Amino acid sequence: MRRGPRAEGILRAAVQVAERLLLCRPWDRAVSEVLAILGRATEVSRVYVFENHPGPGGELCTSQRYEWVAPDITPQIANPELQNFPWIEGGFARWVERMSRGEAVFGLVRDFPPAERAVLESQEIVSIVAVPIFAEGRWWGFLGFDECRRARRWSPEEISALMLTSRLLGVAIERQVVEEELEEAAGLARRLLEAKSWEALLEAAEPVLHRLLAPDGLHLFVTDPSRSFLQLVAERHEGGLRAYRASVPLDPPEDDCVAWVAHRGAPYFVQDLGDPTLPFRVSESAREAGVRSVLLIPLAAGGQVTGALVVDFRSPRQLKPSHLRAADFLGWMVAVAAERILESQAFRDLFERVPVGLYRSTPEGRLLRANRALAALLGYPTPEALLARDIRAVYAHPRDYRRWQEALRRNGRVEGFEVQWVRSDGERIWVLGSAQAVPGPEGRPAYYEGSVVDITRRRALEEQLAFLWGHDPLTGLVNRRRFQEELDRVLARAEGRAGCAVVLLDLDRFQEVNERVGQRAADQALQAVARSLRASLRAGDLLARVGGDEFGILLFPVDTRQARRAAERLVRRLREAPLTVEGRSLQLSVSCGVAVSGREKTDGETLLAAAEAALHESKLQGGVRLSCPSVGLRIVDRWEDRLRRALDRSGFLLMGQPIWDLRTDRSGRWELLLRLVEGEEVILPGEFLPAAERTGLVVEMDLWVLRRALEWLRRFPFRIHVNFSARTLAEEAALQQAVRLLRAQPRQARRLVVEITETTAVSDLPQAVRWIRALKQEGCGVALDDFGVGYSSIAHLRSLEVDVLKVDGSFIRALRSDPRDRHLVHAMVELGHRLGCLVVAECVEDAETLRVVRALGLDCAQGYHLSKPVPFPPQPGPSRLRAWSHRRRTLVST
Question: Which whole number is the average pLDDT over 683-704?
Answer without folding.
Answer: 81
